Amino acid sequence: MSGRPPRPPRGDAPPGPWDPIRDLISLKERMNRLLEAVLVRGEFQQGEFARWTPAVDLREDLEGYVLTAELPGVRRDDIRIRIEGGLLTLEGERPPDSAARDADHLRIERPYGSFTRSFPLPGSIDEGKVRARFDLGILEVVLPRSAGARARPITVQVT
Fold first, then answer.
1. How far apart are alpha carbons 121 and 65 in whole angstroms?
2. 92 lies in the same domain as 78
3. Could you tell me the pTM of the whole model?
4. In terms of Cα–Cα distance, which of 48, 63, 79, 77 is closest to 123?
5. Under a CB-based contact definition with an 8 Å cutoff, are residues 65 and 58 in contact?
6. What is the phi-psi region of residue 136: left when phi exceeds 0, alpha when psi lies from -120 to 50, beta otherwise?
C-alpha cells in the first residue's frame, strides 16, 4: 500500500484557489453594465436585464486604440460598429441555436439576443483609417489616432 493519497479521476481537477478580489471586480463590472443600461440608455424593461453582454478589452498602444470583443456564435453580418462624437458603439445579435430552440432544456447558460456596448474614446482618431477584423468569434477593431494626436518621443533637457 502506497503512502500517496489517491488521484482524482481525470477531468475532475481540483479548482484553483478562490480569489475574492477577482469576484468583486467581476461583480462591479456587472453592476456598472446594469446601471449603464438603466441610467444611460433607459432600458428598465424586464427582458432587458437578460440581455447578452459580450466581454470586451480596450487597450491603447503607440498608434491608437484596439478593441477586442468575444462574439462566439455571432455572424459577421450581424455586427455593427459606429463611431460618433468620440463614442465607439458595438451592436449585434446572437441568435439562439436552431437545434436547441425546440428542445426541452434542462439548463440554459449561454445567453443570446441583441447586445450594445459603447465606449468613450479618450482621444481623437482618424476615422478614415479604422479597420475591423472578425475571425473565429473574435472581433478586433483598430482605431488609429489622428496624425496630430499620435504619441511621439521628445528629448527633454535636464538642468
1. 8
2. yes
3. 0.61
4. 63
5. yes
6. left
**CA distances for 120 relative to 16, 17, 152, angstroms:** 35, 35, 23
Count other C-beta atoms under 10 Å from residue 86's C-beta: 12
SS3 state of residue 101: helix
Helix runs in the chain, H state only: 20-35, 98-101
Sheet holding 113-120, edge to edge: 79-84, 87-94, 113-120
Q: What is the largest CA-CA distance in the chain?
A: 76
Query: Which one-letter amino acid corresponds to residue 10?
Result: R
Q: Mind listing the pLDDT tens digit for each residue in 60-101?
A: 888 899 999 999 999 999 999 998 888 899 999 998 777 766
Instruction: Report the residue count for the chain.
Output: 159
Domain encompassing residue 65: 52-97+111-150
132 and 58 fall within a common domain: yes
Grid cell of 7 as nine digits: 488521484
| Domain count of the fold of the chain | 2
